[in-house]
Amino acid sequence: MTIAVTGAAGHLGRLTITALRTRGIAAGDIVAVVRDAAKAADLAADGVQVRVADYADAASLRDALAGVDKLLLVSGSEVGQRLPQHTNIIDAAQATGVAFIAYTSILNAATSPLILAGEHKATEELLAASGIDHALLRNGWYWENYDSSVAAAAATGALFGSAGTGRVAGAARKDFAEASAAVLTTEGHAGAVYELGGQRLTYTELAEVLSDIVGVPVTYKDLPKEEYATILENAGVPAQFAAVLADSDAGIAVGALDTDSGDLERLIGRPATPAAEAIGA
User: Fold this and answer.
1) Considering the domain boundaries, does residue 102 fall inside one?
2) Is the pLDDT of residue 80 over 80?
3) CA–CA gap between residue 234 and residue 239 (Å, rounded)
4) 250 domain-assigned
5) Which 3-state string (H, E, C) describes 13-36?
């Protein structure tokens, strides 16, 4: 059995390959699909098959997926371009006979109000129409998303956001990677929809976690979405991405990134990593 991982030079892709190896998959049975082979030189040195392809290049994707049995489709990072990119990958999977796809979606994708959710929902619909057996890995927020808040919390004593009293069900990237590896290496996942989240925290509780990390009191400052986006822009975040982040926080306020499904812990066979261990690690 050959398993391919797209975006394999990225954080989640690399961690998934590590998790596959831990589960006993031989390096030579893993295909790392990357844009730049140089960034995966260490994987190649370990015996992983490194194949170069771009999400926007359909021909390169068909070459990269030749002979692949199972595929982890790690969602693209270019918001606004992901649907055509994912279409190319799914088309290539159909053309090359890939038997199973696990797709990294977002929590509650079918009903989520988040800007980020639209392309995920559309990709899920493409998979449903493709005829390929698949599972939806609806990942929650990475605790590592808050790494950038550590320095600001230490400097200002504050965590800024627009999440109100909503909860975010977060976990470490390695948790989501292990869940992906579990689905790729065991049977019975075709048609499954997994809502993946771990520890559930309000931003007030997250501020307490940050306080312990930085060693000074940190309080949560809840702001209107537009004001929070402006703060992000002033901190150097590009305007479009700042709007997406502020929108995601507003989604947390209404439960869009929360789940108590328990799916993540069942898949990985252990408790999810708490925020205090993951943030700034």
Assistant:
1) yes
2) no
3) 9
4) no
5) HHHHHHHHHHCCCCHHHEEEEECC
